[in-house]
Design brief:
By secondary structure, the protein is mainly α. Helix content is 39%, strand content 6%.
Length: 157
């Protein structure tokens, strides 16, 4: 398996999160997500950070082998996976875009056998990170930031 992964395997993306290790008391109120559809795993990262917990990206040290597959088991195939009713419901239950985080949002990273604090670096997601912190501490800002985002997107088009 290791040889096959070394020869043919590829990193999916920071959006694909295949495993979680957490204390039993961390996720006490999880929305009724459909597992296997988008957004539930990204919400898990958001929720841990919203509660001030460390999030450690172990992917540089551990290889999670996820079998590639098509979406023929779904009516409509991959389009249904991405934008079907279950996926849309997951995104809504997660709280929308600001609550969908990925491995790049981890507070720590495991490198060469050590867990190190990941210092924020500028990326296209910096605004999302900033908004996460603000809306977690000040929920009333969420609608104002969404409005600002819409206005900015309109100017960039």
């Amino acid at each position: 398996l290791r040889l096959d992964v070394a020869q043919r395997g590829k990193f999916y993306s920071p959006w694909g999160i295949d495993y979680f290790v957490f204390p039993r008391h961390l996720y006490t109120q999880v929305p009724n997500f459909t597992i296997g559809r988008p957004a539930w795993d990204n919400w898990m990262v958001y929720q841990a950070k919203a509660e001030g917990r460390p999030v450690v990206d172990l992917s540089p040290m551990l290889a999670a082998v996820h079998q590639n597959h098509d979406f023929n088991h779904l009516p409509g195939g991959e389009a249904t996976y991405r934008n079907g009713s279950e996926s849309l419901a997951n995104r809504q239950m997660a709280g929308g875009y600001f609550h969908l985080l990925n491995l790049e949002d981890a507070t720590h990273v495991a490198l060469q056998g050590c867990v190190r604090r990941r210092w924020w670096r500028f990326s296209t997601r910096i605004v999302t990170r900033w908004a996460l912190g603000l809306t977690t501490r000040h929920p009333w800002l969420r609608d104002r930031l969404r409005s600002l985002k819409r206005r900015l997107q309109g100017r960039l088009r």
